Amino acid sequence: MRTFDFTPLYRSAIGFDRLANLFDDALRTDAQPSYPPYNIELVGEDKYQITMAVAGFDRSEIDIETERDALKIIGRKQREDAPRNFLHRGIATRNFEHTFRLADHVRVVGAKLDNGLLNIELVREVPEALKPRKISIDAVGDNVQALKAA
C-alpha cells in the first residue's frame, strides 16, 4: 500500500487540515461497510439523495443523525419475542451503522422509508456571502463623489 505525506500541505496552507484528514480516512485499510447496500445520486443542481436498502427494518429501528460534517445512519433491530424457524434466511436484518462525510453547506432536508428503501434528501445551500459576486468598476471621480455623499 502506498502512503502519502501531507506535511507540505500543513506548512503552506491554513485550515486545510480537514481535507488532509479526509484523504487519510480514505486511504485507511479499514473497508467501508457494504451492508446495507446504498446508492448516492445527484438528482439536481446541488441536490443529492442517498437510497439505502433496509428491508426488514421499521421506522422506529432506524436513527438518522447529523453532527457538523457527518451524517450517521444507525439501524438497531429489535429482538423478536417468539423464535422463528427459518428454512432459508436471505434477508439480512443485522444491526448497522454507516457514516457519510458531508461537504461544507450540505444539509439533510428530509428522509422517507418506503417499500424497504430509506431515501435521504440532501441539499447544498451556499450562503449569499460566500457566493461569487460581480464587482462593478467605477470611475475614480464617481467613487469619490459616492464617498462624499455618504
Question: What is the strand and helix layout of this fold?
Answer:
Layout lengths: L6 H6 L4 H11 L10 E7 L2 E7 L8 E6 L2 E6 L20 E6 L4 E9 L2 E8 L15 H10 L1
Antiparallel strand pairs: 1-2, 2-7, 3-4, 4-5, 6-7
Please describe what this structure looks like.
Keywords: Stress response. InterPro entries: A-crystallin/Hsp20_dom (IPR002068), ACD_IbpA/B (IPR037913), HSP20-like_chaperone (IPR008978). With 150 residues, the protein is an alpha+beta fold. The chain has two domains: 30 residues, no CATH class; 92 residues, Immunoglobulin-like (Sandwich), CATH 2.60.40.790. Helices cover 18% and strands 33% of the residues. The chain contains three helices and seven strands, in the order ααβββββββα. The strands form two sheets. It has a four-stranded antiparallel sheet with strand order 1-2-7-6, with no helix packed on it. The chain has a three-stranded antiparallel sheet with strand order 3-4-5, with no helix packed on it. β6 and β7 form a beta hairpin. The longest helix has 11 residues. The protein starts with 6 loop residues before the first helix and ends with a helix. The model has no long low-confidence stretch (mean pLDDT 81).
